[in-house]
Amino acid sequence: MDRRTIIFLSGGVATGMAVGAAVARRRRRGRREEDLVTVTYGGPSRRVPDPLFDLPDDTVEGTVPTGDGGTLHYLERGSGRPLVLLHGITLRADVWAPQLHQLADRYRVIAVDLRGHGGSVAGSSGYGMGPLGDDVATVLESLDLRDAVVVGHSMGGMGLMQFCGAHPDVLGARVAALVFMATRAHQVVPAHLRRAAIRLAEGRQAVVDAGRPLPKPPGLGPRFVRPAFGDRPSRRALALVAEMVEEMDDTALLTTARGLLDHDARIALQATATPSLVLVGSRDLLTPVSSARHLAGLLPNTRLVLFPRAGHQLMQERPEGVARAIDDLVAEIERPAEEAEPAEA
User: Strand 148-153 relative to strand 107-112: parallel, antiparallel, unpaired?
Assistant: First the structure.
């Protein structure tokens, strides 16, 4: 099994049509589909300008220690309400460069490298959804963030779900709203493939443990990551995602992917009343619209936002729409406080 197959099984940038089709056939649980409020942020798809994918010159870097001896690296820009951004598997904090450009005039934007990705180093707890959830709490507490909006993309969204279930006290004290972007509540790999996926991942881990590198065949480039995008993707975005996938350490990739196979946050989501959004692209093959509807049906206080013709990489494909969705959510959570103020005489 080569590196492309590992990423396929992990639910990373090339999970593709097989998983999407299997999930689409799954019967939804939770609230009925007609009870969900869906908002469409659309318009003609336009290629995002290349400069938006470069980090702003005044971006600040920082690190925080984790409780298990690791470190979390992050990028920061702006001031105001904290906006914490969590990327998906094989990506890095700089995948959020468009948001560091577009949102830092009104938010304190903090993009985190998840453990094993970019400049972050896993501690003794290793990888998996549990440590990811703990890391979200660590960032919020170490940086003393209050009234934060936390955005989780793909695996980052799954780690955010884990945080909600494992740290409800931190959630209640420090988080005002949640955004689940291109992610799913459970079953990253269809149930009938799970056992085979575990065996394959463990077999490849044995190769790494023996000191041998995983095969990295030619073609692990922009064409390989193209299924993660919808129509008319930026060539620069494709190249950046391909480079991030290629850069990731083999052990971190394998063990992180293995942890994804155990993901099931349905109970945690049903208990999460924090105002939230679920964002999905209509052409997302990795976490399709059916998965987003299922996820939204589990959350008690959410709205589903659909981006026509967009794929999995919403932060790169539809940055203006993502910014609008976040601004609208913040406006909603601030409105009750404004209405409660007594009118001036």
Answer: unpaired
Residues with Cβ within 8 Å of 2's Cβ and at least 6 positions away in sequence, in order, are: 214, 215, 216, 217
- The radius of gyration of the chain from alpha carbons, rounded to an integer in Å, stands at 19
Hey, what domains does the chain have and what are their CATH numbers? Answer: 3-334 (3.40.50.1820)
Instruction: Tell me how far apart the alpha carbons of residues 245 and 239 are, in angstroms, rounded to a whole number.
Output: 10
pLDDT (0 to 100) of residue 288: 94
- At 11 the pLDDT is 43
Whole-prediction pTM value?
0.85
DSSP-based three-state secondary structure for 286: coil
* Cα–Cα distance for residue pair 38/31, rounded to 1 Å: 13
Q: Print burial letters for 231-258: b (CB count within 10 Å at least 16), e (below 16).
A: eebbebbbebbbebbeebebbbbbbbbb
Below-50 pLDDT ranges, the chain: 1-2, 5-6, 8-34, 340, 343-345
- Cβ neighbours around 217 below 10 Å, total: 9
Task: Write down the pLDDT at residue 214.
Answer: 61
- Measured N-to-C along each axis, helices 16-25 and 289-298 cross at an angle, to the nearest 10 degrees, of 50
Instruction: Return the pLDDT at 345.
Output: 39
CA distances from residue 34 to 30, 293, 297, 305, 325 in whole angstroms, order as listed: 12, 10, 10, 14, 21
Give me the sign of the Cα torsion angle 82, 112, 273, 131: negative
User: CA nearest 3: which of 184, 207, 194?
Assistant: 207
Neighbours of 2 (CB within 10 A): 14
